[in-house]
Amino acid sequence: MATPMWTRLVRQGCCRICRLQNVKHRTFSSKEGENIPISSVPLTERLPGLPLPKYATVDNQKQVTQVTTLENGLRVASENKFGHFCTVGVLVDSGSRYEVAYPGGVSHFLEKLAFNSTSQYSRDEIYQILEKHGGITDCLSARDTLIYAMSAESTALPLLSNILAEVTLRPQFTEQEIDDTRNTISYELESVEMNPDPESILIEMSHAAAYQNNTLGLPKLCPKQTIPTLDRNTILSYMYHHHTPDRMVVAGVGVDHQQFVEAVKESFLNKTPVWEDNPKLINPSSALDRSVAQYTGGQVKVNKDLSDISLGPNPMPDLAHLVLGLESCSHKDDDFVAFCVLNILLGGGSSFSSGGPGKGMYTRLYTHVLNRYHWINSASAVNHAYEDTGLFCIHCSSHPERLGELAEVITNELTETAGNIRTDELERAKTQLQSMLMMNLEMRPVMFEDVGRQVLANGHRRPVEYYFDAIGNITAADLNRVANRMLKTKLSVAAYGNLKKLPSYDDMQSFLNNKSSLHKQFNLFRMRR
Fold it and tell me: How many other C-beta atoms can be found within 10 angstroms of the C-beta atom of residue 5?
């Protein structure tokens, strides 16, 4: 007959109590041979007679990013990190901002075509090699950077370097691969349209409003109408201008720098790009865009019924989405760190956020907005920084009937950034940003991207201590200064959903320009609802 569960639990509990009681009677011998009870030694003291602990040590305790420029202009950057695995990749000064002379979406295609067949490897061979060494791959296209990355055992470094050279300089781009990519992107665009969270759509719209018809305002997601038009020649022509040694950085984390340099020399310098083998592949009309981003401000609206966007017994609430943005600064600007602190100070998120205050519920967009106005579904600050400009935004949403009130609350919150900033909220924001910086750089892929991006932009990488100290030195006066700088720029508005109650662009711009007329502007908003 089986023993009842409660009986077994009682027996287990009694055994644990006995074991704990036995600890009290354990003794150790002192130098004088006297037996002393262990329980009499305070936890703040070492147990006598035990050998000293031996801790593992890591060579090169002070992390230093090493950079070597090869004879063809290609930069190799690395930082050693304890462990048996490494992350290596190629960062290219590329992206949708350079596509003015091309059909939109070339970078999007390159992201999906990455790690397919090359002149030396088939797609299956690449992944079989990586599987043997515990490896994974990823490719990310941004507005200003294209990143090819791999993580695998450090012993496979020469193979990883060779694969990277093949993928970035000698891809095949067969008709089958391009057709598959067309289908993949079409499906992705459909998924974006059906997603209850239109974050990627709003980012596209806000950039299109802020930089109308130039550089950063060009579409990152491939437009539907250009999917059938993009072919092998167009894509290779784009790579011909952008995948040049002076626009590329080969970065690695968890590798020995000298070994890494030798592996990159062997693989990258000895390979001729596929477009040099056959110059007829290059379209003569293609060119390299060297334009500087021109912030224009403006408005992009998409009026769409989102009431039935999610199916099922618990549908998402009917929401209208609004993004209000102003020009901030580039990541090379002296005010960059101050804008980052201002971003954290505003913070924000969703009206439903699990995890408690540790997720930023003491930020201004929680305490001043989400906790005061129950009808606001979300409000969060985002700062996009690029080489020559930046865009500071607040993304928010509410029921379409309250869109006017939402615009009122958020525009008021933007103007308040130039006002009084309490010491406690400033210190909290600085501490939170410092902790985010330090914790994120504990992850090898994040460190890899930071190394690559900094070297690609500046030719060197500043140590993490530089930014840690810079954050700590930010004052309330700094935040007031950058807020006033931001408020002098033209407003960028992106609106998505049922927009019948959206105030006019001129009204929202006028509010930012005339902060002294708050009550008059509020009444104007209410009259238009």
Answer: 8
